[in-house]
Specification:
Largest sheet: 7 strands, mixed
Helix content: 25-40%
Strand order of the largest sheet: 1-2-3-4-5-7-6
Number of helices: 4
Radius of gyration: 15 Å
Length: 171
């Protein structure tokens, strides 16, 4: 992957499911960035994909290489919590494919996501970042998120406990 290749960002579609699952499973198997501990099949991830339509407050944006159409990353806005009073809050996240970091893909994805959410009835976005993850902290700061607290040793993966720093952004 060339650092100069053009990147396109678009809504995620059903045809992306296998590649998105493969990308996510990398983080499940190799990192503490997600607290899922077992890889998924595409069929197991289908409900997640379908919970992010092209409109509304819960979106999926996908970055692809303009030439190869290879998926380079994705960003989502998802329900913050299931109770109705949380309806104007979303949790956002970004995953960039291994080997595609440092190309500004996370920024392209978040720009597209927040542009898409601008007309939605939303008040706040939240992001939980497993620690340490300086790249994610910098990305969120660039998009106006501010640190609001840290849950200490909230998740156990790979035989150790991990902290999660929480960030919020007004929408």
């Amino acid at each position: 992957m060339s650092g100069t290749a053009e990147v396109q960002v678009r809504p995620g579609v059903e045809a992306d499911l296998k590649a998105l699952t493969t990308l996510y499973n990398h983080y499940v198997r190799e990192t503490p960035i997600t607290f899922d501990t077992e890889p998924f099949t595409p069929e197991e991830r289908r409900p997640w994909l379908l919970s992010h339509p092209e409109d509304g407050p819960h979106r999926l944006r996908v970055a692809t290489d303009a030439d190869s159409q290879e998926i380079l990353g994705y960003a989502t806005s998802s329900p913050y919590r299931p109770k109705p009073a949380y309806g104007t809050s979303v949790e956002t996240t970004v995953y960039v494919a291994p080997g595609a970091g440092g190309r500004g893909i996370g920024s392209l994805l978040y720009t597209s996501l927040f542009d898409a959410l601008a007309c939605e009835d939303l008040h706040r976005a939240y992001a939980g970042i497993a620690q340490p993850n300086e790249a994610s902290a910098r990305l969120h700061a660039r998009f106006g998120f501010r640190h609001v607290g840290t849950y200490r040793e909230v998740g156990r993966k790979f035989g150790r406990y991990w902290d999660v720093a929480w960030y919020e952004k007004p929408l």
